[in-house]
Design goal:
Blueprint: H1 7-35, H2 39-49, E1 55-57, H3 58-64, H4 69-81, E2 85-89, E3 96-100, H5 102-122, H6 129-151
Antiparallel strand pairs: 1-3, 2-3
Length: about 160
């Protein structure tokens, strides 16, 4: 039988939906306007910029970016066309690395101030230091729980249609 959300769960879920639907679009708008890239493209470039040699195996990058390898491959192809990233075979041909180009690294540096201002304005300025720490803990816990749930056999839960 379907277990309906109680009032507190409903509030929590609606707040989560508001964040996951509104924030990515707002960040995309800011980054497109100021830097000519999407939020996910910026995220991938940022992750690469933080790695030694500004390079990472595609499978590791997909994991860090919380993306499928297919989605990441599509984005890296676009970043390659823009001259901001390149792919190369890893030693022993056991995989592929993505790496920032010099132009890609400069693009991340150029985009970062506007992005960070937007993140601060849209999210962090609405919280005090304790709430920011709580958000970090809750976000990490939920991301861990989601990863565990998706890695279980069957991945997604049953539809619940049989319970109606």
């Amino acid at each position: 039988m379907t277990k309906w959300l109680d009032p507190v769960e409903q509030r929590a879920w609606r707040a989560t939906v508001a964040l996951i639907t509104r924030l990515p679009g707002a960040l995309d708008t800011q980054l497109q306007r100021e830097s000519g890239m999407t939020h996910f493209e910026y995220w991938v470039l940022t992750l690469l910029s933080e790695e030694p040699g500004h390079r990472l195996q595609m499978s590791e990058l997909a994991q860090k970016a919380n993306a499928s390898l297919s989605r990441l491959s599509h984005v890296v192809s676009k970043l390659e066309r823009m001259g901001w990233a390149q792919r190369s075979a890893t030693a022993g041909r056991r995989g592929v690395h993505a790496a920032l180009t010099d132009d890609g690294y400069l693009k991340v540096i150029e985009a970062a101030p506007g992005y960070l201002d937007a993140v601060r304005h849209m999210v962090l300025d609405g919280l005090d230091a304790d709430q920011t720490a709580q958000l970090a803990e809750l976000g990490e816990r939920l991301a861990e729980h989601l990863a565990d749930a998706l890695n279980q056999p069957g991945g997604l839960p049953p539809s619940g249609k049989d319970d109606q």
